[in-house]
Amino acid sequence: MSLQVRHDVSGRGGARLRKKPMSQIALSAAIALTLFLAGSTRAADDSYEVSKTDASLTAGGKGKASVTISAKKGWHLNAEAPLTLKLVPQTGVEVDKAKLGRGDLAASNEKSARFDVGVTAAEPGKKVIEAEAGFVLCQEDSCRPVKEKVALAVDVTSPKPSPGKQPAKKK
């Protein structure tokens, strides 16, 4: 099957018909969609920055990590669009809440927003929490959605022995 498309290829305002196979149109559409989606999930550029503070805690205790989203170069965070942080902790580490939203922000203004992530772990070791921030950046005449992934490191140390009774030394 083919589709007829009008193209002005003469440069004189004239038009002629050219057949373009549907598979070529589908491929072009797929490439355009891929580029569009890649643009909404690309790594930080000069219009924003996503920074993090890793967590350090004692096994059995509680710690805190944070993710901060900062708009730059004339961009601002859209105050009406969703602002989210989805968390997927590695086995052995737990977070207070797996999905954070605007109501969970520790600090925010037009240019930045910070999520604090409560963390607990039962055993010592190095762990990771995969996080995905979702937000909308805007300028005066345009807005664009952004999704940015970041890995939060969690360093869990062994608890110190309590200064209780020491075993008696044999003579």
Q: How would you sum up this structure, described in words?
A:
With 171 residues, the protein is mostly beta strands. The chain has two domains: 2-6 and 16-40; 48-157, Immunoglobulin-like. Helix content is 11%, strand content 51%. It is built from one helix and 13 strands; from the N terminus they run E-E-H-E-E-E-E-E-E-E-E-E-E-E. The protein has one helix at 22-40; strands at 2-7, 16-21, 48-53, 55-58, 62-71, 76-77, 84-89, 93-95, 99-100, 105-108, 112-121, 125-138, 143-157. Strands 4, 6, 7, 9, 12 and 13 form a six-stranded mixed sheet that branches. Strand 12 and strand 13 form a beta hairpin. It is elongated and about 80 Å long. The model is unreliable at 1-20 and 22-43 (pLDDT under 50).
- CATH structural fold name of the largest domain: Immunoglobulin-like
Rg from C-alpha positions? 26 Å
> Regarding CATH, which class of the largest domain?
Mainly Beta
CATH architecture type of the largest domain: Sandwich
User: How confident is the prediction overall: mean pLDDT?
Assistant: 80
- The CATH superfamily of the largest domain is identified as Immunoglobulins
Helical coverage, percent range? 10-25%
> What is the H/E order?
EEHEEEEEEEEEEE
Q: Sheet with the most strands?
A: 6 strands, mixed
Oligomer: single chain
Kindly give the count of domains. Answer: 2
Distance between the termini: 97 Å
Show unreliable segments: 1-20, 22-43
Tell me the strand percentage band.
over 45%
Number of strands: 13
Number of helices: 1
Question: What coarse outline follows from CA principal-axis ratios?
Answer: elongated
Structural class: mainly beta
